[in-house]
Amino acid sequence: MSTKDRLIIFDTTLRDGEQSPGATMNQEEKVRIAIALERLKVDVIEAGFAISSQGDFESVAAVAEVIKDCQVCSLARVMDGDIDRAAEALKSAVNPRIHTFIATSPIHMQHKLRLPPEEVIELAVHAVKRARNQVADVEFSCEDAGRSEIDFLCRIIEATIDAGARTINIPDTVGYNIPAQFASTIEQIIERVPNAHKAIFSVHCHNDLGLAVANSLAAVMTGARQIECTINGLGERAGNASLEEVVMAVQTRKDLFPVESGIETREIVPTSRLVSSITGFPVQPNKAIVGANAFAHESGIHQDGVLKHRETYEIMRAESVGWAANKMVLGKHSGRAAFVARLEELGITFENRDAMGEAFVRFKELADKKHEIFDEDLQALVSNTIKDAAVERYKLQGLSCESGMGKKPKAEISVIVDGESQTASASGSGPVDATFRAIEEIANSQTTLQLYLVNGITSGTDSQGEVTVRLELAGRVVNGHGADTDIIVASAKAYISALNLLTSQALKTHPQVESAGV
């Protein structure tokens, strides 16, 4: 038996990760990611912020219903309505957790909350007690702890532990700290809070200075035993601590860290790819652990060393985190039963036969274009099927483009709008530009294009191209996604997907906008 402490991995991809501009996920997608996180064996899944919208409430409830081997958690401000809504969403969870928070830094208390420190403590204690009356496991977070006064942190933490909090989270909310400083903060809190032994101390670090993982690991060395992180480091602004980097640092440097996690590391790469496919946020090639170049060697010296003895330049095995050759799973002759069986192995199910039938039709269309179909193709296909089924005011009907050297690119497009077919044509600086201009001739959306991104789903010239289009309208940002073996068609699908999102989704409350609701 190991004598090391257990490091609790708290994944907030579905909550904080979704706060990345345009990264909104629907309920089916959240459930798919939650199932992948369960296979990854994370300890806690923060499924959302139940009070923020009806959609978030239903997503938390759906995840709580499906997940049995992980704790499911909902965020809540220190307001009665938030606490009660979180408890209601979690009522079917096997082991529910309510995560409540309030700001503790002088700048937040003075300018955002406009409350004196004593009243902040009273609100925190009240929230923890109310939450403990409804669930057995309550976590309390000191928002902006990284810029809070240590004396005040100790006071509010002692009070909330007495009130029943069993996890105390110390977030570097704005990514301001550096490792030595943050580690010292954790050490001082644990030493100075008299009832610290009754709680597990957690950290939640943002990556504004590129130090989220470093700060998290430094905190572990001085007593933190839970790290809040996300797949691919997804999150608002510069993102959060990356789960895969945290986990593999602890596992690779067993000689230094006094902890170990229960993560099934071979599920890291598949989970990373799933999250990337659903959110449309591609993983940069040189991203640690999950980037395409993470285990690639081009230097002759490196190649020679690895061939002679792997450990000369590789500190971990690619296979240990889930890297392997793409496995062909299906082809044009595969039937519906094989298609459904493979999706179930990937944790993908459909609510009804119509949705499954639509996905199968798209699979057959893809199989006619692409001889070998991989898991990544299926993930992208299903993601786009679910998105289109959820909201489809606009639907791509047909597209043709003319382009070549010395020619002015031109696109002609046919789009079904509210059930009626409309056509338009336009010229542009390239075929994609012409296509987008033609769509706008029909939609006249008044949006601003903020991002156009192309990512190859698999290798090979017949690979599907996955396109992300980010549109902004009146301060609202959405990401549309499209995939096709024809990159122009994929671009049109992505643009139309973004338009559909803009016309259907309600705005959600950001959990850090009004921390105490006063």
In short:
By secondary structure, this protein is an alpha/beta fold. The chain contains 16 helices and 18 strands. Strands 2-3-4-5-6-7-8-9 form an eight-stranded parallel beta barrel, surrounded by nine helices.
Description:
- The chain has helices spanning 27-40, 54-66, 80-89, 106-113, 117-132, 150-163, 179-192, 212-221, 243-252, 268-279, 300-308, 336-345, 353-369, 375-390, 431-443, 487-504, and strands at 5-6, 8-11, 44-48, 71-77, 96-103, 137-143, 167-172, 200-205, 226-229, 259-260, 328-330, 373-374, 394-402, 410-417, 420-427, 448-456, 465-473, 476-484.
- With 518 residues, the protein is α/β, with parallel strands linked by helices.
- It folds into four domains: 5-279, TIM Barrel; 294-324, no CATH class; 328-387; 391-504, Alpha-isopropylmalate synthase LeuA, regulatory domain (Double Stranded RNA Binding Domain, 2-Layer Sandwich).
- Helix 6 links the parallel strand 6 and strand 7.
- Helix 7 (179-192) runs parallel beside helix 8 (212-221), helix 13 (353-369) packs across helix 14 and helix 15 packs parallel to helix 16.
- The termini are far apart.
